[in-house]
Design a protein that fits this description.
The structure is a single chain. The chain has 615 residues and is mainly α. It has 27 helices and six strands. Strands 1-3-2-4-5-6 form a six-stranded parallel beta sheet, with helices on both faces. Helix 21 packs across helix 27. The termini are far apart.
């Protein structure tokens, strides 16, 4: 296959657009479209490889060659950043391994769809988020050859029917984008092969119609090229990623423009510029390294000043060059068995570090990082939140038996009701300790991301159903038995007007039912997970302005709630906190949820308030 300088040029446009977009360089607000350009290029090249001699196409050899092309540089990057993070930011080591496992097995697009949105602020702390696009491409490489083999007879004997089938599949894929966007599944549209396949198949369409484009007069071809390239440049300059849905009908513009440029196959002298050609050559490695370096700069709060951003851009280029020269060009990577062996070793290592790290001890800070990646899925967390029995995850349906545990035993003890969102849930075990000490019964009703009230606003259906049952059935039926309600929520996430409305309704409800209610105070909330926040403060004296502002908001919120609720408010700010236990357990495991070690530190102040009311 002859070297395509025009495709190399498009790679340069794509990778620089992406790099400069994420490093917030002026004029690249729409640079995220570089990924879409890469998709079109991949679709064209794969179509060319498969269709040029489809009668003798060997699908197994195709897969082997794709592995040899893609795996080595990716795996080298995973090893490099695993070692880097272990030394520079060890609390993120195990979180990186969790993500590395899905990246190395090319299902990271599915994993990230289930766990985060691409443009969410939290995603800017995921070192391997960018591998979602590699996963989409690899999934395309697996399925696409099968599709072409199934339609081979039409390609050879009736090209019109082949084109009709091909275009129909493109339209179906694009229609899926419109459908999932229309039902609010924008992240699905962004991450999944189904909704991205049409972009790569536009590249295939460019190959199918390439001969037709070659019949166009040279001057007209240059005019079409100029319009297509200009449309991509204007898109990169003017479009803002954070104000539009993506992909969407707007995606047709840069994708089609890229397909047209490839189909035109113009041989321009400046395409062959050595610098352009070299940047095109290192574009894959540059794509691999730019994002982890950006995330590292974000953690270290070195993503604001231009001089700092420039340093990390240069680092990205340096590592891309090393990766290209040492890994991509190495003769060793042409050996499939060697690549497969190395891949299995990396897969196995990341899998063990991600899934079986309980008995692995490396360094103190790396070990603390286990709480960042593992704690919320652990048996300790399940016991702390009393999950399944009393705390129900918002994104999971209520089990048919959820009412079974909601009763007070007839034992002449005082009855306490713990009520709220996940911030109430995290106090489940500590509240059980308190009520055991006070010789009281405890019933606990909590779910996620929802203020406990009738018909509460929520992104989840489960907490709405749970709280509606609590307020319309359980509490009215047991109001004469309930000695005290202890309510907790992440008050900080609600605007002042909405929170005041919720508090008025809550106070009126319990006053009407003659049930005393107290509110556990707002706990600390951070932008980062707390172990990483503490590590950065202690080792680098780094604290982002965003964290400073958020901590200040917590202080102000506590003061306002204390004034608003008076004696009913248990202000936790007065408690002196031990941030880390002697066994290395942090008092917060993510950015706002306490561990059992953390909630236990508030046991006395909460019990004192409860005892003064219930005794």
């Amino acid at each position: 296959m002859n070297f395509r300088y025009d495709i190399s040029f498009l790679r340069v446009v794509a990778v620089l657009a992406v790099v400069f977009f994420y490093f917030n360089i002026h004029g690249f607000s729409g640079g995220f479209v570089g990924v879409d350009i890469f998709f079109v290029i991949s679709g064209y090249l794969m179509s060319q490889i498969i269709l040029k001699d489809i009668d003798h196409f060997n699908i197994v050899e195709f897969y082997k060659k794709r592995m040899v092309r893609i795996f080595p540089a990716l795996l080298f990057m995973l090893v490099f950043f695993s070692l880097t993070i272990a030394f520079v930011l060890p609390t993120q080591f195990y979180q990186l391994q969790n993500n590395a496992f899905s990246s190395a097995l090319f299902f990271s697009n599915i994993y990230y769809y289930l766990n985060s949105g691409y443009f969410d602020p939290a995603s800017h702390y995921n070192f391997l988020l960018h591998t979602w696009s590699l996963s989409v491409e690899w999934q395309f490489y697996i399925i696409y050859p099968i599709f072409l083999l199934l339609t081979k007879r039409f390609y050879k004997s009736n090209i019109k029917i082949f084109k009709l089938i091909f275009i129909s599949v493109i339209l179906l894929s694009f229609a899926s984008v419109l459908y999932f966007n229309s039902i609010g599944k924008n992240d699905f549209s962004f991450y999944m092969l189904l909704t991205r396949a049409w972009e790569m198949m536009i590249g295939g369409l460019a190959l199918v119609y390439q001969q037709s484009f070659q019949k166009i007069a040279v001057k007209k071809k240059f005019l079409i090229f100029s319009v297509a390239l200009l449309s991509i440049i204007l898109f990169i300059y003017f479009v803002n990623a954070y104000t539009i849905l993506w992909p969407s009908p707007l995606t047709i513009l840069p994708v089609t423009a890229t397909g047209i440029i490839i189909a035109l196959h113009l041989e321009l002298t400046w395409y062959k510029n050595r610098l352009i050609t070299y940047v095109g050559n290192i574009s894959y490695s540059l794509y691999l390294y730019h994002w982890p370096f950006f995330v590292l700069s974000h953690f270290l709060v070195l993503d604001i000043a231009f001089k700092h951003r420039l340093v990390f851009i240069v680092l990205s280029f340096v590592m891309a060059i090393i990766s290209y020269e040492v890994v991509e060009k190495s003769k060793l990577i042409k050996n499939f068995k060697l690549v497969a062996t190395f891949s299995i070793i990396i897969f196995g290592t990341t899998f063990c570090l991600a899934k079986f790290n309980d008995n692995i001890s490396i360094t103190k800070d790396i070990n603390i990082g286990k709480y960042v990646s593992n704690y919320k899925f652990s048996n300790e967390a399940k016991a702390q939140f009393r999950m399944g029995e009393y705390h129900h995850l918002g994104d999971q349906p209520l089990p048919p038996t959820y009412k079974n545990n909601l009763f007070f035993p007839d034992n002449n003890k005082k009855n306490i009701l713990l009520l709220g969102d996940s911030h109430a849930g995290m106090f489940g075990k500590t509240m059980q300790d308190i009520t055991d000490t006070m010789d009281c019964n405890l019933v606990h009703i909590s779910s996620d991301a929802t203020f406990p009230i009738v018909d509460a606003e929520s992104i989840f259906e489960t907490p709405k159903l749970l709280f509606n049952y609590a307020f319309t059935a359980f509490i009215p039926a047991n109001k004469d038995k309930i000695s005290l309600v202890v309510l907790n929520a992440n008050y900080l996430v609600y605007g002042d007007i909405l929170l005041n409305h919720y508090l008025n309704r809550t106070l009126a409800y319990f006053e009407k039912n003659n049930i005393p209610v107290v509110f556990i105070g707002q706990t600390m909330v951070y932008t980062l997970d707390y172990p990483t926040y503490q590590f950065l403060r202690q080792n680098y004296q780094i604290e982002s302005q965003e964290d400073k502002d958020r901590i200040n908001r917590v202080v102000i919120k506590n003061q306002a709630l204390a004034e608003r609720l008076g004696w009913r408010y248990i202000n936790l700010a007065s408690v002196k906190i031990v941030p880390l236990s002697s066994k290395g357990v942090p008092f917060i495991y993510d950015h706002d949820h306490l561990t059992y070690f953390g909630t236990s530190q508030y046991k006395n102040i909460i019990m004192s308030k409860m005892d003064s009311i219930v005794k």
